[in-house]
Every structure is written in C-alpha cells, then in structure tokens.
Amino acid sequence: MRFAVSLLTLLGVASIIGTVLKQNEPYTNYIVKFGQFWFELFELLGLLDVYHAAWFLVILLFLVISTTLCVLRNTPLMLKEWKTYKEHATEKSLRLFEHQASLTTASAAPALQSQLSAWLTAERYTYKATPQSNGDVLIAAKLGTHQRLGYIFTHAAIVVICFGGLLDGNLPFKIQELLGCKKVETRDIPSRQVPPESRLGVGNLSFRANMTLPEGERDNVSFLRVRDGYLVQELPFTVMLKDFRIEHYPTGMPKSFESDILITDSDLKQPIEATVRVNHPFIYKGIAIYQSDFQDGGSQLKFKLWDLAANQQDGFDVDGVILQKGSLGDGAQKLTVEFNEFRQFNILNLSADGKGKPHNVGPNTTFKLRNASGQAREYVNYMQPLMLDGRAYFVSGMRETVQEDFKYLRIPADDDMEITGFMRLRQTLRDDKSIQAIAQQVAAQMPGNNPTLRAQFEQSLQQLLMTFKRGGYSELSRIIESAVPKDQREQAAQTYLKLLNRAAMQAYQMSRAQRHLQPIAEDQTSAIFIQDSLNAMNDLFFYGTPYYFQLKSYTLKQASGFQLTRSPGQNWVYLGSVMLVLGIFAMFYIKERRLWLLIKPAQHEVLVAMSSNRKNMDLDQDFARARQQLSTLLQAPSA
C-alpha cells in the first residue's frame, strides 16, 4: 500500500509539473527560457513531455496490473461480506463485543420480535431473523454495507484512469521506437519526403498533432512534435481551409477567429462543410479538429530596397513571400533572405513613461539575412512611421541571436512622412564630390574675407565629413582622442558636432534642390531632423547589413492553425473520475453498522451488540443512541 501511494504521489507531482511546464515546445524555447543546464536536466528527467515519458508510462502500466490483481483478489470476498448478515454469531461472541449491552423486557417473544423489526425498519436497517435451537431468536441487521463498494470503485477507478492514460500515452509507438521500427525525424523536409519509419498510420491509437493550412489549400497529414523532432501523422480524410476570419478589438487585439473547413473522404458521398472556432471543435471519425491559432500563410510583400553601400539616388523594388527565401548580391557577399513572419496588427505602448494606452501601429515583417557562411541576423521592420517622443521614425530592429533583445534603428521621417529625405541626405554625405561642394558652400558663409582662413576651414570641414563617412561618431571620437589634449577634448567635440550639423543642414538643402524641392526653413524642427538623421547614420554602422528593406505594400494571405486529437483514453479517464468520486464518497461518508439483537424469552432479556468496520467516535455515539432507544422501546407496554 505504501509503495502504491508513493507511485500515485509521484504521478501527481509529475502531472503538476506537466501542467505548469508547457509541454512539447521546441527545444530552443526551453533553452532561451531556462538556460542550457536546466534544459538538459528537464530533458534527462523527461519533464518536457512528461505524459509520454517512458518512466511515466511504466508506472501507469505497473499500477494497472497491480491494482487489477488487487481488485480481482479482494472483490469476491467483499461482495460476499456485503451480502451476508452474519446471522451465525453466537451469544458468547456477542458478549465479547466492546459495544454490547443486556436489556430487560417484559414483552412476550412474538410481540417483542415485531417491535424490534419495526424499529429496525424505521432506522433503515435490513435484517434477518434466525431462530436458535434453545428457543432464542437472533436478529442480524446491517446498515451502510454499500461502503464496501467504495473500495471496489476507488481501486477500479485507479485502474480505469491509468488505462486511459496508457491509451493516450501511445504506448504502442514507444514499443515500436524501442524496437527500432519507428524513429523521430529531425530534418526540415517536406512531409511527402518523410520516410515510413517517421510516419504514423491512420490506425494510430491516439495522437495530438498540429496542422497549419493557408487559405485555399488542403492536406491529409499533421505533425506531432516529439522531443527535438517530429512525426508525420496520416489522416483518414483531407482537410481544406476555405476561409479564415478574424475580428479585432478597436485597439487591434484579436477578439475572435474561426475557420471554414471542408472535409473530403472516400467514405463520404459529398464533402462536409464545418466551421471551427476556439473551444468549438469539429469531430469526425473520432478525431477532434480544434482551432488553436493563426499565422501568415504566405503573404506577398513589396519592398523598396535601399542599398546602403551604393551611391545610387533611389531604392529599387523587390518582392518577397512569407515562408520563402530570396537572395541578394553574389559571390562571398551573397545574402540569403528568409521571410519569416508578417503581422498586420501590432499593439504597442509608445508613450515615454509607459503609462499611455496601447494602440495599433500597423504592419511589420520579420526576416533573416544569412551570409555565405550560414550566420544570420534577424530583422523586424515596421511599415509605417512610429511616433516616438513626439516625432515620427521608421523603425527597424536587429538581433544576432534569438536569445537577444532587438536593438532598434530609428530613421526620422521627412515632411512627407517618407524615408526618402533621410536616404537622399545620407547619399549626399557619402558622395565625395558633394562633400567638397558642401565644404565650399559652408566656408563661403564664413564672415570675413581672408582666403587663407577660408581655405583652411574648408579643408578641415572636408576632413570632418570624410571622417564621419568612414565610421560615424566612433571614428570622430578616435580622431579627437589622438589629436586633441585631454582637457580640450570636450570643447573640440562640441565644435565638431556643431560643424557637422551645419554641414548636414547644407547637405539636406542640396539634396532637396536635386529633387526640385523648395529649401527647408532652418528652424528647430529641421535642426531636430538633422540631428536624428546623423544619429541614424551613425547607428547604421552597427546595423549589420548594407540593405534596408522598406515595406511598401502587401497582399495578406492567412493560415489557420489546427490541433487534431484522437483521445480514446479521454472517456476512460472521465469514467474513472466519476468512479473515484463515488468510491471516495462511499468510503468516507457511508457508515457501515452491523447490529445483533438476541432475544432470550426465558430470561426476559435482549442482548444488543453493534460493530463497524472502522472504529471511531461515531460508533460510540450510535451505540449509545441505539441502546437508549431500545431500552425505552423494551420498557414500554406492548399493545
């Protein structure tokens, strides 16, 4: 018993862990969340998929076998004990009971037996009267013997629940994997290329698999995530996603979503149309189809690609498709573009103090740029300018690993809420001829007519712009530290920054003139734009790629995520749970009482004895109450 209770306790703790710790997630998620050490420990203990762990299933199997044998051995004895009245008890044995008393009576035997029978009936006892050889009459009564069923129900419930757990634990697959007949697939290949040893047939006993269907597409397989890989689960029918619908709150947060599906099967005369909503699955052939999530199904994106390393004046158009790849450049500089995700709605709180109201800031897309050696950086670009600190910026995030947070590049939007003003300004400041012209124009605005000083100033300004072109503020700081005494560096830095801002303003006027635009007013607003532009140019040195993807438009294509489950053990677990509740109720709340009334007419005596299968204070109280009632009954004159 102690061993069985220990095993049940272990299963209970494991079930709690399985509830708290999200099961069957990709291994990278666990590494990011818990770290390498705890991930390896959890994997070693089988806690990442505890309900299908070998030790968990072995314990279930052991409990099923051992508890079944226990029930088979004890149930016949308990049923026999339940039915019997124990009418063969002797006077000697009854007088040895702890709860026994001798009551006197003046009533005749037939009337006395009738009185006692009526009392037993009123107290809900069932009884059996047996005449004795010496003229005595023994009435054997019982109450609450259904408590015996509590033991049977409780132990049978454990068997039923564990059996249901074994059914849903997919023990046959574990055995096949142990024998080498099945193995987990870890390669990222199309489902049709997955070999037979990594596929599960339509007759698989139980599974919990996932399927992602873009609108207008169909499939007859789903995927089971297993440890660091997956298995392909074949379905006895084909599912097609006809339409996916989603409703949003005014803030842009998803409110509800549902899918219209079409089930086709060779056993059907015509396809079945159904709508699957959250918590409202569609069940066909014992397989429940749940609406679990939604994602992009291959949206078509149109970008304006800005080549940050080139001196061309405008970006060029490129197309991308989510979940597909493209390429840029060639040779050692070739980059592979992996378009991973597109989100039409993004709910962000952009207030400076974080106390503002979140709102939808529009679409964004996430992609990776992978170089020839296989190293990748991940980027997220927002389509519309975001309002930050009261100013509009085009925002792009970059990170080198999934464990890191995104580091954001903020490019100021121009007066037309476009990125063109910044890009043209940057190109102007990167062109050697333009730098020379900028230095000449700024020098020409100097007061005084000293040609020598003007020429020196022009030369210094050119060097300043060339230094910023090579490495931004970092390169400028290095030059100051190497050429300026320590006590004069701060003053020199302030002077250089003022000159840099003045030259950048002149460059911006030149770039506007090249686009046949009117000169901009040189006020506080334009000064802030210039300063933000210089900051963004400096940050581009750490951006990690010579390309900026500006999302211009998109054609949305949704995909619906389904979870398909076959759970034959579910009903067994429900049945076992009901049996367990009934059994526990019977064991703890039904009081078993056995009462013997030995009528001795010759001695005008009634011997009363009471027992129970469980000694407690209730038995003392019940016996005292029964003795008092019987004493009063026996002293009363018979009718």
Give your account of this protein's structure.
With 639 residues, this protein is α+β, with helices and mostly antiparallel strands. Helices cover 40% and strands 29% of the residues. The protein contains 15 helices and 26 strands. The strands form six sheets. Strands 14, 15, 18, 19, 20, 21 and 22 form a seven-stranded antiparallel beta sheet that branches. Strand 20 (386-388) and strand 21 form a beta hairpin. Helix 9 packs across helix 12, helix 11 packs across helix 12 and helix 12 (489-514) packs across helix 13 (524-539). The longest helix has 33 residues, at 451-483. The radius of gyration is 42 Å and the shape is elongated.
Q: Characterize the main sheet.
A: 7 strands, antiparallel
Beta-strand content: 25-35%
Shape: elongated
Q: Decide which structural class fits the backbone.
A: alpha+beta
Quick overview of this protein structure:
By secondary structure, the chain is of the alpha+beta class.
Secondary-structure topology with pairs:
Elements: H1 2-20, H2 27-34, H3 36-45, H4 54-83, H5 91-95, E1 100-104, H6 109-122, E2 126-131, E3 137-143, H7 147-168, H8 171-178, E4 199-200, E5 207-214, E6 218-226, E7 229-248, E8 254-264, E9 272-277, E10 282-284, E11 287-296, E12 300-307, E13 316-321, E14 325-328, E15 335-343, E16 347-348, E17 359-360, E18 364-370, E19 376-382, E20 386-388, E21 391-399, E22 407-412, H9 420-430, H10 432-444, H11 451-483, H12 489-514, H13 524-539, E23 547-555, E24 558-566, H14 569-589, E25 593-600, E26 605-611, H15 617-635
